[in-house]
């Protein structure tokens, strides 16, 4: 067991290992990041709430993410390129049971081109959002307000793309 796996186990966080053989050798870090996140999406339990958190995003205080989502199915920070809005892949909360069946096989966080505009990692979430216009999306402010008076009760997932994971 790696140190990351032990910590996740201690905290009750589901650990998802991104296998080294899944790396397709993309020279573009945005593509590599999107491939890693897409792999994780395919391995989530659709009956849970998921938090996708980039490796360089840190929670500074306990926060009750479910209450901050309100009635929304998905909450995250909005990225915009041209006329296209999409989810910034660094911080996304998904209430998976409220999303359409099969969504985890369909949604993609890869970069690409939409309506002639290049979109970064997370950009292809715009295609999902366009297809399922009934999905309630809450666009969170750039700096998510921590509410220290609420405990951090949420089933968490951790994508492990660390070099240490490949040697586990």
Give a written overview of the molecule.
The structure is a single chain. Helices cover 26% and strands 26% of the residues. The chain is α/β, with parallel strands linked by helices and 168 residues long. A four-stranded mixed β-sheet has the order 2-4-3-7. A hairpin with a 2-residue loop joins strand 3 and strand 4 (84-95).
Biggest sheet features: 4 strands, mixed
Strand order across the largest sheet: 2-4-3-7
Structural Rg = 16 Å
Uncertain segments are: 142-168
The fraction of residues in strands falls at 25-35%
Q: SSE order, as H and E?
A: HEHEHEEHEEHEEH
What is the typical, i.e. mean, pLDDT? 77
- Which percent bin holds the helix content? 25-40%
The DSSP helix count reads 6
Distance between the termini: 7 Å
Q: What form results from the Cα inertia axes?
A: globular
Number of strands: 8
Structural class: alpha/beta
Which helices and strands appear, and what pairs or packs with what?
Elements: H1 3-11, E1 14-17, H2 29-42, E2 49-53, H3 65-69, E3 74-81, E4 84-95, H4 103-106, E5 112-114, E6 117-119, H5 125-131, E7 137-140, E8 157-160, H6 163-166
Parallel strand pairs: 1-8, 3-7
Antiparallel strand pairs: 2-4, 3-4, 5-6
